[in-house]
Amino acid sequence: MDYPRTLRELRAARYQTLSVKDELRLNLIRKLRTGEKLFPGIVGYQDTVIPQLINAILSRHNVILLGLRGQAKSRIIRLFTDLLDERIPIIAGSEVNDDPLRPISAYGRQMLEQNGELTPVEWIGRDARFVEKLATPDVTVADIIGDVDPIKAAKGGHLLSDELTIHYGLLPRANRGIFAINELPDLAGKIQVALFNIMQEGDVQIKGYPVRLPLDVMLMFSANPEDYTARGKIITPLKDRIGTEIMTHYPKELPSAIEITRQEAWTDRFDNREQLLVPEFIREVVEQIAFEARDDNHVDKHSGVSQRMPITVMESVVSNAERRALLTSDEFVVPRISDIYAAIPSMTGKMELEYEGEQLGANRIARDLIKRAAGEIFEGYFVGIDFSRTVQWFDEGNKLLLADTAAAEECINLIEAVPELLETAMIPFDFRRSDTARLVSACELVLEGLYAENKISRNEEGGYAAVTKAKKDRRGMIYDDLTETGKYS
Questions:
Q1: 129-185 confidence digits (pLDDT tens)
Q2: Secondary element (H or E) of residue 114
Q3: How far, in Å, are 240, 314, 315, 460 from residue 365 at the CA level?
């Protein structure tokens, strides 16, 4: 497509300028009418956050997203660019995206005076109209608004008070676009005042010189609710200027969480995609760990448990299964419960613990979360199924060790010695006897479920044995178990 290249051509094309908020609104209306998907890749917000975002855009509001870490706040903000026009015209060389029909900077006005209808026009895309800044205490007014540039003054022969000597900050450079600030409470109060002033009045002082910049900007902010008191706060006039405050949240249902992890985790790493077989119950256990962690009294609720945790755990689970397949020459990469235990290093760094949790240790907390998560998923698949003969076999003093580096065939030979374990583990799943690797994974789920119900015990190396009678009445906790020492109960 040939775009107008001068102001004259732009006028001849009958181009009409829209404010950025009107532009977002009209493009949103078009997408809603055509049924086009909004905010692609955002899962679990269809009935909560996304309707509120739509209302905010239709209302032409500035928006702040409040939520704990790992709730896709930054991703949502960046997806707002999809609602911008593909391209818009600016005066060529303008640092603040001057509208050729209504320039706001001294440079833009000067170009019009010098060139008139022949003023050169450039077209910029969506990405060039999005400016993002992470708020930190060291951010200055110069960073956000601008500062006097002595070099510009010297080269152009201007006085320092001349507007042409300004080096514009991030906000003016976002003119006719979207300006986003992440972690807004971390921004110093005086910077928030400057931000509010230019939003409300359209003017600002740079080095003591008043400058009027009637900016056309859609403002997006993100913040963690705890930051209001922990590290700073949003000043009242600025908060009052933000039209819509939207609370984000973690996935409320397991299927939504699984979909997010399936979308985000790096598991598509094999030349043959059919080489990786992740049983659905493994995905469910990984997600249930995060759900358990968010409800655990030993994990800091104010900090939250990021959705990044199940994503990185799934990546580590697949990696451990991949390592086993490389060592044993197994044809397929099939994750097991033991691989989830091997992924504990991907969990511990993503949980902020309360005092009691710190005393117990992150590793022990993680092991308990896996145990409880596996127990929940086990109940869903095997409710009402009797494992008495399997438990009795362990009670007779037998032990079973399924190392995470053992080949599937080796494991299945060991499992066949346990009465009814293999046959019963196949009941909920459409596995054939030849599906050796997946059968081993299903059997590990059963063993972990029995361990969660304190019917058998488990040691750190993946060994299962009988549990003492005293512990059979305590379900779901391992804080007083001997799993940390690797000894059997």
A1: 999 999 888 888 888 888 776 666 566 666 555 666 777 889 889 999 999 999 998
A2: helix 106-115
A3: 42, 18, 20, 14
pLDDT digits (tens, 9 = 90+) for 371-397: 999 999 999 999 989 999 999 999 999
Position 229, amino acid: T
Is pTM beyond 0.85 here? yes
- Burial readout 459-489 (b: 16 or more C-beta within 10 A, e: otherwise): beebbbbbbeeebbeeeeebeebebeeeebb
> CATH 3.40.50.300 occupies which residues in the chain?
7-247
Query: What sign does the dihedral 454-458-464-465 (CA atoms) show?
Result: negative
Whether 344 and 367 have beta carbons less than 8 Å apart is answered as yes
Q: Residue 44 has what DSSP assignment?
A: S
Q: What is the CATH number assigned to the segment(s) 7-247? A: 3.40.50.300
CA 140 – CA 191 distance, rounded (Å): 7
Burial 357-395 (b: 16+ CB within 10 A, else e): beebebebbbbbbbbbbbbbbbeebbeeeebeebbebbe
Whether the Cβ atoms of residue 204 and residue 194 lie closer than 8 Å to each other: yes
| Mean pLDDT estimate for the chain | 88
CA separation for the pair 38, 393 (Å, rounded):
55
Q: Output the six-digit token pair for 202.
A: 């359209």
Confidence of residue 283 (pLDDT cuts 50, 70, 90): very high
Tens of pLDDT, residues 216-240:
999 999 998 865 444 568 888 888 8
Q: Can you spell out the DSSP letters for 255-315?
A: HHHHHHHHHHS-----SSGGGB---HHHHHHHHHHHHHHHH-TTB-TTT---THHHHHHHH
- Cα–Cα distance for residue pair 340/343, rounded to 1 Å: 5
CA 6 to chain centre: 43
